[in-house]
Amino acid sequence: xxGVLRISSALAWRNLWRNRRRTAIMLAAISVGAWAMIFLTxxxxxxxxxxxxxxxxxxxGHVQVHHPDYRDDPSIANLIPVADGxxxxxxxxxxxxxxxxxIRVPAVISSERETRGVTLLGIDPARERNFTFVDLxxxxxxxxxxxxxxxxxxxxxxxxxLETRTGKRVVVMSQDPDNELADRxxxxxxxxxxxxxSYEEQFVLIGKRTAxxxxxxxxxxxxxxxxxxxxxxxxxxxxxxRALMHGDPVTVNAWxxxxxxxxxxxxxxxxxxxxxxxxxxxALSFGLVNTLVMSVFERxxxxxxxxxxxxxxSAIRWQIVVESMLLLVFGLVIGNTLSFASTYAIxxxxxxxxxxxxxxxxxxxxRLVPDLTVDNVxxxxxxxxxxxxxxxxxxxxxxxxxxxIEAITTVQ
Amino acid sequence: xxxxxxxDLSKTYRQGDQEIRALDHVSxxxxxxxxxxxxxPSGGGKTTLLNAIGGLDRPDSGEIYIAGERxxxxxKAELAELRLHRIGFVFQAYNLIPVLTARENVEFVMxxxxxxxxxxxxxxxxxLEEVGLEGMGERRPAEMSGGQQQRVAVARAIxxxxxxxxxxxxxxxxxxxxxxxxxxxxxxxxxHHGTTxxxxxxxxxxxxxxxxxxxxxDGRIVDDIRQHAA
Lengths: 412, 230
Fold this sequence. Notes:
The structure holds two protein chains of two kinds.
Chain A: H1 3-16, H2 20-58, E1 63-66, H3 84-94, E2 98-110, E3 115-123, H4 125-128, E4 140-141, E5 151-155, H5 156-162, E6 169-175, E7 181-192, H6 197-202, E8 203-207, H7 208-215, E9 223-227, H8 235-244, E10 251-254, H9 255-258, H10 260-297, H11 300-308, H12 313-345, E11 350-351, H13 356-361, E12 367-368, H14 374-400, H15 404-408
Parallel strand pairs in A: 3-8, 5-7
Antiparallel strand pairs in A: 1-9, 1-10, 2-3, 2-6, 2-9, 4-7, 6-7, 11-12
Helix pairs in contact in A: 1-12, 2-10, 2-12, 2-14, 10-14, 12-14
Chain B: E1 2-15, E2 18-31, E3 35-39, H1 46-53, E4 61-66, E5 69-70, H2 76-86, E6 87-90, H3 102-113, H4 117-130, H5 146-158, E7 164-168, H6 176-193, E8 196-201, H7 204-209, E9 212-217, E10 220-226
Parallel strand pairs in B: 3-8, 3-9, 6-7, 7-8
Antiparallel strand pairs in B: 1-2, 1-4, 4-5, 9-10
């Protein structure tokens, strides 16, 4: 660094501590602003993640394979035209983090008192145990033992509606591929709880093989799913599943195609974070510019002396910009530390069950777990530094434009 | 050799509806190594002339030469370079930078000039010793008396060995003893370094030390006297 930049930077540093109270207030404002940007973004990000994960847990998976007509008509007539055994072999060889094949069809369930429309899932419980929306720890009764289990697992809310419970019998009705009525009695072996109560009303689970027999579809399923490491990085999984199903008349979709509401969440969240960060910065920038203007105003004479002694206006501008950057960097360090500490303190989530209904309307659960992402932290810091740099240009420019004679004779 | 040449300088200010003629066709030659006092009552034009010579102000008309180079046509950046390398300033109100120590204030000009840290420090300590402030280099201006601050300002003005030092009312805020010490310092530096001093003042003691006394009134030079310094 040249001598003039060094002395300008040294002056910026010392001037920062000239009015300690003002600097402390500004630092506090920047710190709280940075904390709000990062911590509240982490909470919102956590909520969105939860909404997406919950959504994916019933969707389920990151990538799905269907018959081309299944999405328009999700009935048993639109089966994947590849035998389930063949599908299982292909997916097993691909080495996905998780995968499964299943039957998912609309059905009607009746107890002796009530009848309700539901979605019937015929699953392999051994495969789906890792990513099911069913809370296995709070399950009343037992989960499915295998694909040939003859029992049914229903949600708590549905059980209440049907006025049934574990051990009682219900009747499930649907259609077979020939549009003939298929119905069968099942004993309720388990009543589950889920993050979102609406799932408890909608989904009932039986063994996959039992479902195939019940619906008369032999060794066929309606969907195959694959799950990768991260719901944000689905493209490799998508490409691999497409390769697995190459030549078969099926559609392969990522989760954001299958649930456009959930799919819109990610870009919406990114946009929200940017707007949020900029709005907070705009509020901060008034304080920052005011602080710099006051700081310049208080040392007009010194600036005049420096100009008179031969310092170039550009060095004066550097001095003010460095002062602003130092304030911002210190504020960001404190703000980042506070936000990391806050996030760590509630790393297991906070209970927002008091607003559970509202959260459920958005598809979020009653537990808010913050998600501090590198991207959002970098975004907040970069926005503050870049916009802070531009905000400091005006006072810096003003300081460098002083007439030395007028500045030196200024009474302060 | 001529250190400063002013040819037919005029400068007019407006103050409200009033037009003030600060310089009225002023011409003067000042030799290198001279010790000149500009004396005038307030508003007589001495500070305006000093500022014009120092490249801080531009005349409305006329020409200014420093060591033979015309400066009234230079750009702001060129004038800044000129002030940085060839002119030292001493102001009435000391005008030290309060967040820097005495030594750092003295080093300031050298640092802007790009002199290395070790050389800067050596020269600053040497000049502080020369102006009688040995051991006070780490004090901030607020911790020093007015006389000490003015000595630091003088040290800052001469440390980079400019050919010309311009001082505007340097004793105005000092008591008589400190004023005498400061003028004594000026004359010593003038003799030892051959630096040209132009001092704007209406302090009669300062005038007594000058080898040349230029009297101004209403923006004009009314008397130009060679005298034996005290």
